[in-house]
Amino acid sequence: MKLYCLSGHPTLPCNVLKFKSTTIMLDCGLDTTSVLNFLPLPLVHSPRLSKLPGWVSKDGTLNLEKELKECAGRVFVDSQPEFCLPEKELLDLSTIDVILISNYHCMMALPYITEHTGFTGTVYATEPTLQIGRLLMEELVNFMERVPKAQSATCWKNKEIQRMLPGPLKDAVDVWTWKRSYSMQEVNSALSKVQLVGYSQKVELFGAVQVSPLSSGYSLGSSNWIIQSHHEKVSYVSGSSLLTTHPQPMDQSSLKNSDVLILTGLTQMPTANPDGMLGEFCSNLAMTIRAGGNVLVPCYSSGVIYDLLECLYQFIESANLGTTPFYFISPVANSSLEFSQIFAEWLCHNKQSKVYLPEPPFPHAELIQTNKLKHYPSIHGDFSSEFRQPCVVFTGHPSLRFGDVVHFMELWGKSSLNTIIFTEPDFSYLDALAPYQPLAMKCVYCPIDTRLNFHQVSKLLKEVQPLHVVCPEQYTQPPLTQSHRSDLMLELQPPPMPYRRCSVLNLPFRRRYERVYIMPELANSLVPSEIKPGISLATVSAVLHSKDNKHTLQSVPKPPPVPPSKKRKRVIEEPPVVLAPKPLLSGAVPLEAFLATLQKHGITEVKVEETADGHILHLQAEDTLIQLEEDGTHIVCDNNEPLVEGQDFPNHSNI
Amino acid sequence: RSCILVSIGGKNIMLDCGMHMGYNDDRRFPDFSYITQNGRLTDFLDCVIISHFHLDHCGALPFMSEMVGYDGPIYMTHPTKAICPILLEDFRKITVDKKGETNFFTSQMIKDCMKKVVPLNLHQTVQVDDELEIKAYYAGHVLGAAMVHIKVGSESVVYTGDYNMTPDRHLGAAWIDKCRPDILISESTYATTIRDSKRCRERDFLKKVHESIERGGKVLIPVFALGRAQELCILLETFWERMNLKAPIYFSTGLTEKANHYYKLFITWTNQKIRKTFVQRNMFEFKHIKAFDRSYADNPGPMVVFATPGMLHAGQSLQIFKKWAGNEKNMVIMPGYCVQGTIGHKILNGQRKLEMEGRSTLDVKLQVEYMSFSAHADAKGIMQLIRMAEPRNMLLVHGEAVKMEFLKGKIEQEFSIDCYMPANGETVTVTTNPSVPVDISLNLLKREMALGGPLPDPKKPRTMHGTLIMKENSLKLVSSEQALKELGLNEHQLRFTCRVQLQDPHSDTDTLHRIYTHLKSVLKGYTIQHLPDGTVMVESIVIKVSSSTEDPNTKVLLLSWSYQFGSDLYCLKRGFFF
């Protein structure tokens, strides 16, 4: 069993597991941190961005002023932003049988994998994962296609040139594999390969392996996966949460007894407490509004935003923000808000009981109804005429490189009254802000990451007791910036097996048994005998049938009777008799008891001769020799019928 | 009414717990004394599964759990769990508060009963205990209707509840995978009908409503609050919009809006089209259909009223019916099946004078129409489901005996499987033949698969030998050598050798060769080898030839075989008739 690691990003994993002749891809995360090297895509012409100076190396030998722009001491690529894809060269992607998706953030690379690679397999995901994943992809495509950029910068990628560039561009890896966004057509084609599954549904793959998603508690429809055969079990844990937010709680007990547990998607903010961050978010928001400023919240259009809105729903009245408009701007804002209300089955218990009343599970329905929250597809159209300040705007993309957020950065960045509050943990806020420097606007960083922290995960692992743990190498050492914090890493016995991008791990696994089914007819014919207390044995002679990776044992068929033919009248064959398999013999034959049995059968003339290994018995009347040895008995006789049947052997273990 | 008890692999499962609407006495609830004469059911049942929220499938649930006594798990889907208590409460109000009946469950009992419910998701495999697992499939009969697959070990049963194989205006079609259950228990409400296309029926319905409205009549459509009502509302809504009609459409009882709200929140359970477009336009927000008030019934002019309940046995639909029955311009459309004994059933059978409570009679002058809109599978649908699931046995329930008999014949003919149709209170026993799962050592399996070659030869099956170790609860199949090793035993070889004398003037090697060629020609299909060490092997039997010391023409044939393969002797016996 092997694990191929195609992504080095611990929370946006992409691994391939080869297990019992199946090839299973676990998640398909798209590393979007690469876009931080690019210049933002403004929705309306930005004089500031267009006036940024081009970059020329200090000695003037290298002139890339068309491709690279300089802003506040950092160099950015002036081109359509590109993403860092999962490694495509490590193995042939067309051999992948299935892709298992754990949550909607971890499927963003799907079109790159399923399209134009010869992929013919199936993708498994839950319904919320598919629907919200589709929205996020749609949003991404929309953000990119709305502001097409004619120029595509490639010169800087030249190895010789890249070496000369200032950091972090200089240190960016595999830049040649970076790709632009996919098209909507590719998204649709990729998503048409998705097959929906429900929690705890058992999906058979080729009869060899069974996969099953389990609730992971992180987002709507998010799941961990169990990959198992009758004798082996691999758990894949990705993006799980033990906090009570909106999704169904995490199913921990089903992870027990795993041979291997692949652990990814732990919190990216191990030192930030989500509840504390939420409090800080609210107080900073209220403070800014009271001072007459605007609040900008760059966020994904699904996920934590539901919790933020729920928190604000309770907070608005007490903080006297009843008249402040809240805007949610995204091409998929409406869909995201609507979809969140229809997945009752995937929600936590509290929200489910609301649906039974029937009431919408999320209070943002009421915020919309009372006009406190308004949503728009973009800043163009209705929004521009209805927009009032001071206000709170939720919009994407959290990288600040594309989407409507770019416009608000340009609009509000120069005033110190305004505040930008970062809640998404995926991007370093300093890097995100770099192309907007110098900024007057206040920055508040309260990343909310509800995924498991190291404390929770070590408790979890103690409970579910996997034999081996595989995890990204980042989890086996403390973070670079906090090297003294040994509590911010995994310490396990045996130590976890670390992986990095392009690793191929041999998982410590020894398959010894396989499931086979004994057909009822054969089962009835077996003769078990107890040879030790509690242990019985039966010899089995059978025909093995293997079909679709399922094995059955059937009775040995009787040879077909020879059709009666007139030509061969001499045929006096007995019909062949198929006997039950004879038992296996073990142990030695005790001489005395054997002689007694012979006597019982009327055989009295026995000459016993001692030999080096045992005895030779000469049954004179029958002209038969019996050689008795420690591990064998040989009966030699003259007539056709053997004299004694094995069953008569006394004190003999018949197996 | 449905209430079925299944015993499978030592587990007892109750499927549905329905109530008979035609009776007002004890007969309306299932007879639980079949299970136990005294005391509670908890010890006798492993779980209860409710397929959907219709009262003939869940109406007796609080009675069973709270009054007879059952504390185990009750499984149903989320929409069923949401809607079922409302219908139960509604029904309780009609029987207890209006008719003043006693010996009925209370509101509190409904609440307590619902606390025992465990929600079930589609396709989720729920492990009830270590051995019993259940899985729900989409049934399409009403919102949240499900079929269940019940499995214990290698035995399994599928119970369909009520289902529908053709998608309609708001629900999708039932679907199940090829799970090959031992028994498929299917409803058979429409066992003989092969219904005409849905479009025709819809057109018919609209035409009748339209005609009645045109001549100034009032149309009463008795429905259950949830289910068919929504489909017909969507139908009328689009028709009204297209034809620009002005006559008011009402929906009785406060349940309307609430009911539609359920559809909005459980939109994932509706059909594909509604699910796809719900963000832009939610089909369950009606423009033309308004809430009904009791006083509207006496308003002049045409109108269409949807009123509950659907079989005219109580409540608002019955009140309106009484008011409108005397006028031949009016019309009542019964969109579903009516149970015997209800007024709905009586008028559908052409009865024109009805005896009402208090000995008064009611003349029925209004037009009575029947439109089969209730979403059950018809004969074609049932056959289609059998093809999908490939059961080994079939069991028909929830239908009329005569019609079931016809369908039974058809099923037995087309699929050659046994088909049963038990009456209420009858027990059917189906014997299954489960195989035994065993763990085979991978070494043995791989060796065997390698020897067997890539493709199995049906004419020459290879026999595999192994030893089954039974220890505590585990069954392991390993090679004999491994078994001995694992158990620390020495193998004991038992060989038999037999001397046969025969007259043959040839040399030893020639004799052996002649035996070899002879056996080769006689014993077709057996492995016969002439080994270089001067022996012939027939399967596992060794044959050697030596000359007698006294007479070189007398040859001694030594046949030697081991005890394990004694059965190989029989082939040799066939060969030695030379």
Structure description:
The complex is a heterodimer of chains A (655) and B (578). Chain A contains 16 helices and 32 strands. Chain A is elongated and about 120 Å long. Chain A has 655 residues and is an alpha/beta fold. Chain A starts with a strand and ends with a strand. Chain A has a 7-stranded mixed β-sheet. With 578 residues, chain B is α/β, with parallel strands linked by helices. In chain B, 30% of the residues lie in helices and 24% in strands. Chain B is built from 16 helices and 28 strands. A 7-stranded mixed β-sheet of chain B has the order 6-7-8-9-10-19-20, covered by helices on one side. A 6-stranded parallel β-sheet of chain B has the order 13-12-14-11-15-18, sandwiched between helices. In chain B, helix 2 (61-69) packs across helix 4 (107-115) and helix 3 (78-98) runs antiparallel to helix 4. The termini of chain B are far apart. The model of chain B has no long low-confidence stretch (mean pLDDT 84). At the A-B interface, helix 8, helix 9, strand 23, strand 25 and strand 26 of A face helix 3, strand 6, helix 7, strand 21 and helix 13 of B. Strand 25 (535-547) of chain A pairs antiparallel with strand 22 of chain B, so a sheet runs across the interface.
